Amino acid sequence: MSTASTRLPEGRYGRSSDERADHKLKIVGAALAALLLALIGYFAYHYVGQNKISAEVITFEQGKDAVRVHLEVRKDSGADGYCTVRSQAEDGAEVGRADFHFDGDATRIDKVVTLRTTAPGTTAELLGCHAD
Asked: Among 1, 24, 60, 66, whose Cα sits 20 to 30 Å from the Cα of 38?
């Protein structure tokens, strides 16, 4: 005794609805992946390509009403911009914040700047640099 097959004959009725759904999902997935890659590329270009000024804090000296900060700034020749530095007290409260401007043709600048504070500052943090 044999059992009857419940499968449809091959090629007689076209593709099943599952195969059509799988094909549509693959197309939608590929389109979304391409969009995501384009978006990541766009943001990467604007973050890396447009950042003409960067800096880092080399050292800092704490004082009673000021913090002396040694900044090393790297920028494109002729680019003008500023870097924002802040200082915090021991309890984490912000006690000073200032923008320091850099211009000229030099591509690397070592500069010691003085950040005035309202209380003794225990940190010197570079918040970021921006081109004018």
From this structure: 24
Residues 113 and 90 in one domain: yes
Tokens representing 64 are 């009673």
**Contact indicator for 126, 73 with CB cutoff of 8 Å:** no
pLDDT higher than threshold 80 for residue 104: yes
For residue 114, give the amino acid letter: T
Residue 59 has pLDDT above 70, yes or no: yes
Average pLDDT score, the chain: 86
User: Same domain, yes or no, for 124 and 72?
Assistant: yes
Over residues 34-53, the pLDDT tens digits come to 999 999 998 888 776 665 78
As given in the structure block, the two tokens for residue 86 are 């802040």
Whether residues 86 and 120 share a domain: the answer is: yes
Within a domain: 1: no
Q: Contact, 109 vs 73, CB < 8 A?
A: yes
Closest CA to 123 of 82, 83, 86, 91: 86
